Amino acid sequence: MHYQATRQHYGAAPSQFGDLYCPANAGPHPVVILIHGGYWRARYGLDLMEPLAVDLAARGVATWNIEYRRVGEAGGGWPGTFQDLAAAADYLPTLASAHQLDLTRTVAIGHSAGGQLALWLAARPRLRSTILGSDPIISGDPLPITGVIGQAAVADLQAAYTLKLSNGAVGELLGGTPATVPDRYAATNPAQLLPLGVPQILVHGEQDDTVPIAISRDYAQAAAAAGDVAHFRPINSDHYQLIDPATTAWAAIIGALRELFVALGPLPIGFDQ
Questions:
Q1: If 65 and its partner were Cys, which of 53, 56, 70, 210 is the partner (CB 3.0–4.6 Å)?
Q2: What is the dihedral of CA 50, 55, 61, 64, to 10 degrees?
Q3: Angle, CA 64 vertex, CA 59 and CA 67 arms, to 5°
Q4: What residues contact residue 54 under an 8 Å CB cut-off, 6+ apart?
C-alpha cells in the first residue's frame, strides 16, 4: 500500500515537528503516535522510528512520528520535553480533516524512554486531579489516547533513577532526584499516575540489557492492580529488535496493536498483510 509523508511543525523551536505518514487509500485512518527513545537525550532522534512509520502506513495506519526537545538542547528536559509531547499530540486535531485521521482510534507506541512518554500522554487527563493546577506541564484539553504499547518502556522513573539507568538519565531529564523534586516525578512518572484508564501492553525483550525487563513486569502488575487493563508480554528479543520491522519482535508489536484496534473498530484495510 502506498503512503504520503509530510513534515508538520507543531511549534517554532527546531525540534518541534513531526512526520505524518498517511496511507494513500481513503480514510478515515486510525492513528499511531510514534515516540522514539534515547534516554531523552538530544543525540537520538525520530529517525529511529522511521522504518516503523513506513511499515504502519503500508498497513493502512496513519502514523505521527514526533520529534521533541531533548536534554542537551535549548528547552529540553523539564518541562520542555513534556510540553512538546503534549503539544505534538494536541496538534493532531488540526491535521485530522485534511488527512482523514480517525482520532477516536489513537494509539501511542513508544520505545524505551519514548515508552515512558507514551504512557504519560495517556495519563495527561489525570494531571489536573493529581497535581497542582499551576504545574507547567498541564495544558489545554488533552487529546484522548485510546491505547498504549510500551516497547521496553522506562515505565517507572523512580525505579529507573534508583537503578541509575544510562548514567543518571532520569535525574538529567527532571533536573533532580525523587527527594529534591518529588513533584516533578509525581507529574511525569507513569507508575505514580495509575490508573491511566486506557489499555496498555508492555512488550519487553528477555535479552534486553538497556532497560531491565522487571520495570515493565512490575509496572504492568501495578497497573492491573490499580484497575487498568494492562498486559506484560516478555518476548525473545534484545532492546533494539523491537524497532526493526524485519524481526519477530516487531511482529509481536503488530500483534499487540491488532488487539487494541480490534477493540476499537474494524481493522484498517491491509493491516494484516
A1: 53
A2: 0
A3: 140
A4: 3, 21, 245
Strands (E), 40-126: 62-66, 101-111
Rounded Cα distance, 94 and 246, in Å: 33
Name the pairing type of β-strands 62-66 and 29-35.
Answer: parallel
pLDDT tens column, 102-130 = 999 999 999 999 999 999 999 998 886 66
Q: How many CB atoms lie within 10 A of CB 122?
A: 26
Mean local confidence (pLDDT), 172-188: 95
Measure Cα distances from 72 to 15, 65, 69, 191, 249 in Å: 12, 21, 9, 26, 31
In one-letter notation, the amino acid at residue 220 is: A
> Cell numbers at residue 57, please?
502506513
In total, the chain counts a number of residues equal to 273
**pTM beyond cutoff 0.70:** yes
